[in-house]
Amino acid sequence: MTMAVTKLRVEEKLYQNRYLVDPGRPHIKVRPHERPSANLLALTHICPAKCYELNDKGQVETTSDGCMECGTCRVLCEASGEIVWNYPRGGFGVLFKFG
Amino acid sequence: MIEQEFDAIVVGAGMSGNAAAYTMASQGLTVLQLERGEYPGSKNVQGAIMYADMLEQIIPDFRDDAPLERHLVEQRFWVMDDTSHTGMQYRSDDFNEAKPNRYTIIRAQFDKWFSRKVRQAGATVLCETTVTELVRSASGKVIGVRTDRAGGPIYADVVVLAEGVNGLLGTRAGLRKMPKPESVALAVKEMHFLPDEVIEQRFGLQGDEGCVIEAAGTISRSMAGLAFLYTNKESISLGIGCLVSDFAQTMESPYVLLDNFKNHPSIRPLIAGSEVKEYSAHLIPEGGYKAIPQLFGDGWVAVGDAAQLNNAIHREGSNLAMTSGRIAGEAIIEIKGRNQPMIRRNLALYKTMLDKSFVVKDLMKYKDMPALIHTNSRNFFMTYPQLMSQAAQNFMRVDGTPKIEKEKATTAAFIRARSRWGLISDVIRLALAWR
Ligand SMILES: Cc1cc2nc3c(=O)[nH]c(=O)nc-3n(C[C@H](O)[C@H](O)[C@H](O)COP(=O)(O)OP(=O)(O)OC[C@H]3O[C@@H](n4cnc5c(N)ncnc54)[C@H](O)[C@@H]3O)c2cc1C
Ligand code: SF4
Q1: Which is nearest to B100 in space by CA: B53, B153, B138?
Q2: How far is the C-alpha of A88 from the C-alpha of B343, rounded, in Å?
Q3: CB distance from B36 to chain A under 8 Å?
Q4: Cα distance between residue B284 and residue B281, in whole Å
Q5: Is B274 helix (H, G, I), strand (E, B) or coil?
Q6: Does B188 touch chain A (CB under 8 A)?
Q7: Nearest ligand 2 atom, CA A72
Q8: Domain of B206: which CATH number?
Q9: Which SUPFAM superfamilies would you find in this protein's record (chain A) (predicted)?
Q10: Cα gap B382→B379, rounded to integer Å
Q11: Which one of B250, B253, B334, B378 is most buried, counting C-beta atoms within 10 A?
Q12: Among residues B285, B301, B329, which one ends one of the domains?
């Protein structure tokens, strides 16, 4: 219901943006886990590009293609080791036309 | 592979990095600036209001060719609840001066312009280059950087960390801690395009005049947050930001807040019919004075957002970035002029100079504000906005209720919501933090 509508809205928003995706080199990875922590779970709602999603086993997965490199997930989940976060290689990733 | 050894390497080509690189290169230092974006600005997000005074101190004649959108003649402050806003507004023809004080800008365009100036001043600027690591000597002094380009390390006497709010290099090198979730805000923003005449009509503007709105209230759903709407020449920038810690706790989605803001009855007519061309997200340092990390060490200094130099109360960041970048550049020039090494003891000059500037003085003034707002966000961003709206409506609606009863009802509503003591203590604490 509302989830699907919201998701559509984010995808529509991201569609306006320019990206240069570095194929096969995702710059963010989620460490394998049994149960996500509260912060990791929160990312499925608060990542502004909706890069984090729950799979049917209740674990959090990420696809960083639409990532805007804001760093929110890093601030919340890097220290605990739940995610590994890097900038994309130079020139890759989001390319703001206006910013 | 770059064989040359530089006087300074600047990491990042945002506001602070450009100010530092320009300052040093124009005084004859050999400067290498590295930027991970395809072009300077391609990773950067700002509202964006740019403060002329701080740029003038670096490039006095910037008005001749900088890409400026509108100069501001009007500012509105809105406290919003779900259906209304209570506002204060200041507009003055005095702002139509020969050298206006504040302009709206579009960062991707502005940063490209600033970068051209940096190159003209003699710096070498390399884009599409992510700095991956700081190189240190056996004694721990920063002596250069490693990048994701082929080739070995690049060496310099000093590295200026102008890498922005995330400060990956500084954190990984152990020079500073990662920003805490309660001292950074996540902001999302959209660019809405409209013909210039339409913008001028809707906001009552002529020519290059501009208007900005800063808004707070129930739009942030009781999180500590602010929304904004700024007029550019042919577009409107609007967005909303709240503390990351509040997002994590409430699990609100930033894009939902943004859409609610856009659909608010006070905002919707202002952007009606616009074409959205970009959606962006970025962090803003909001921890204030108490969140400022170590600013210098052996072979390095940190400037701008990388040093968390941001005044969230006044929504100023780019000017603190430009000023700290300039001052770091001047300190480095001075140390070099004395033929002294770029070690911690000497680079302390940067901090001494920065402490004397408005940058640190302003942040010091509001040092207790971030904590107060954070611990009281429900009252400041939910309860009070609702009460203000009720009070204003009570005052304006003419329905035969005697005025004395209306006043009593308003007072009672405030006390019911927050208690007499709660109200008094909020006022006192706010006054103390503002002082
Ligand atoms: C939504 C929003 C609205 C804002 N509104 C205003 C406003 O109206 N007025 C105002 O004054 N301020 C505003 N700010 C704050 C302002 O944008 C920042 O304070 C300012 O951009 C800081 O400049 P900086 O140079 O320190 O960092 P940035 O502009 O972020 O620049 C950092 C640069 O470093 C590069 N970089 C980072 N890491 C590396 C690396 N490892 N290798 C190579 N390059 C790297 C980045 O790509 C980037 O170009 C706003 C911020 C946001 C997010
Ligand atoms: S950096 Fe920001 S946009 Fe990218 S995945 Fe993390 S939270 Fe989402």
Answers
A1: B53
A2: 32
A3: yes
A4: 10
A5: coil
A6: yes
A7: 7
A8: 3.30.9.90
A9: 4Fe-4S ferredoxins
A10: 6
A11: B253
A12: B285
Residue B125 and residue B52 in one domain: yes
Q: Among B18, B35, B68, B163, name the best residue to mutate to test ligand 1's pocket (greatest count of ligand atoms within 8 A of Cβ).
A: B163
Query: What is the C-alpha separation between B237 and A36, in angstroms, rounded?
Result: 36
From B309, B340, B365, give the residue that closes a domain.
Answer: B365
Is the CB of residue B183 less than 8 Å from the CB of residue B164?
Answer: no
**Spatial separation of the C-alpha atoms in residues B242 and A60, rounded to whole Å:** 23
- Domain residue limits at A51: 3-94
Q: A88: which 2 tokens?
A: 């994309």
Residue B128 contacts A where some CB pair is shorter than 8 Å: yes
Q: Which residues of A touch B181 (CB under 8 A)?
A: 75-76
Range of the domain at B190: 181-285
pLDDT in 10s for each residue of chain B, 435 residues: 577 899 999 999 999 999 999 999 999 999 999 999 999 999 999 999 999 999 999 999 999 999 999 999 999 999 999 999 999 999 999 999 999 999 999 999 999 999 999 999 999 999 999 999 999 999 999 999 999 999 899 999 999 999 999 999 999 999 999 999 999 999 999 999 999 999 999 999 999 999 999 999 999 998 999 999 999 999 999 999 999 999 999 999 999 999 999 999 999 999 999 999 999 999 999 999 999 999 999 999 999 999 999 998 888 999 999 999 999 999 999 999 999 999 999 999 999 999 999 999 999 999 998 888 877 788 888 888 888 888 888 888 898 999 899 889 999 999 988 888 888 888 888 888 877
Instruction: Please tell me whether residues B376 and B228 are part of one structural domain.
Output: no
How many domains, chain A?
1
**Which pTM was predicted?**
0.95
- Overall number of domains in chain B: 3
In a domain, B89, yes or no: no
Distance (Å, whole) CA B145 – CA A97: 28
List the structure tokens of B419: 């208690």
Q: Are residues B376 and B271 both part of a single domain?
A: no
| Cβ contacts of B125 on chain A, cutoff 8 Å | none
Residue identified by tokens 């050999």 is: B30
Question: With an 8 Å Cβ cutoff, is B133 touching chain A?
Answer: no
* B268 contact partners, CB below 8 Å, separation of at least 6: B262
User: Is A11 contained in some domain?
Assistant: yes
- Identify all chain A residues contacting B147, using CB atoms and an 8 Å cutoff: 90
Strands B142-147 and B154-161: antiparallel
Residues B156, B14 share a domain: yes
Q: Is the domain of B235 the same as that of B276? A: yes
